[in-house]
C-alpha cells in the first residue's frame, strides 16, 4: 500500500510541476514562421526569435495591444496590428526590430 501511495504522490508532483511550467507560456499567440525566424505575440507585444535559437527579442514594447504579426514574403519585415493610435492600424518593422518610417 505504501508503494502505491508513494507512486501516486510522485505522479501528482510530476503533473503539478508540468502544469505549472506549461502555464507560463499560455500567452504565446498568433505565430508566423519565415525561413529562419518565428514571430508571435506574447503579453500584447510582438516578439521574434531565430528558429535555431532559444533567445527571443521583443519587437514592440507599448501599453497598446499588438496582434497578428506576419512576415513579408522575403522575411525581412513584420507587419502587425496595433491600437496605439486609438484605433486599429497596421505597422511595419524590420525583422531585427527597426521601425519603418513612411
Commentary on this structure:
This protein has one helix at 2-22; strands spanning 29-33, 37-42, 45-50, 56-58, 66-71, 77-82, 89-94. Helix content is 21%, strand content 37%. It starts with a helix and ends in an 8-residue tail after the last strand. The model has no long low-confidence stretch (mean pLDDT 79). Strands 1-2-3-4 form a 4-stranded antiparallel beta sheet, with no helix packed on it. It has a 3-stranded antiparallel beta sheet with strand order 5-6-7, with no helix packed on it. With 102 residues, it is of the alpha+beta class. β2 (37-42) and β3 form a beta hairpin. It has a domain at 29-94. The chain is built from 1 helix and 7 strands; from the N terminus they run αβββββββ.
Brief overview:
The chain has 102 residues and is of the alpha+beta class.
The rounded distance between the terminal residues' Cα atoms is 72 Å
- Strand-residue proportion: 35-45%
Number of helices: 1
What is the SS-derived class?
A: alpha+beta
Rough outline: globular
Strand order, main sheet: write it out.
1-2-3-4
If you compute it from the alpha carbons, what radius of gyration comes out, rounded to the nearest whole angstrom? 19 Å
Number of strands: 7
- The proportion of residues forming helix, as a percent range, comes to 10-25%
Average predicted local confidence, pLDDT:
79
The major beta sheet can be summarized as:
4 strands, antiparallel
What letter string, H or E per element, gives the SSE order?
HEEEEEEE
- Low-confidence runs: none
Amino acid at each position: 500500500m505504501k508503494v502505491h501511495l508513494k507512486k501516486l504522490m510522485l505522479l501528482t508532483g510530476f503533473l503539478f510541476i508540468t502544469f505549472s511550467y506549461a502555464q507560463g507560456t499560455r500567452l504565446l499567440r498568433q505565430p508566423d514562421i519565415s525561413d529562419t525566424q518565428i514571430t508571435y505575440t506574447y503579453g500584447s507585444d510582438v516578439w521574434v526569435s531565430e528558429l535555431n535559437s532559444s533567445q527571443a527579442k521583443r519587437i514592440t514594447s507599448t501599453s497598446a495591444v499588438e496582434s497578428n504579426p506576419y512576415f513579408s514574403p522575403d522575411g525581412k519585415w513584420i507587419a502587425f496590428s496595433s491600437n496605439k493610435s486609438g484605433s486599429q492600424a497596421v505597422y511595419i518593422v524590420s525583422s531585427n526590430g527597426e521601425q519603418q518610417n513612411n
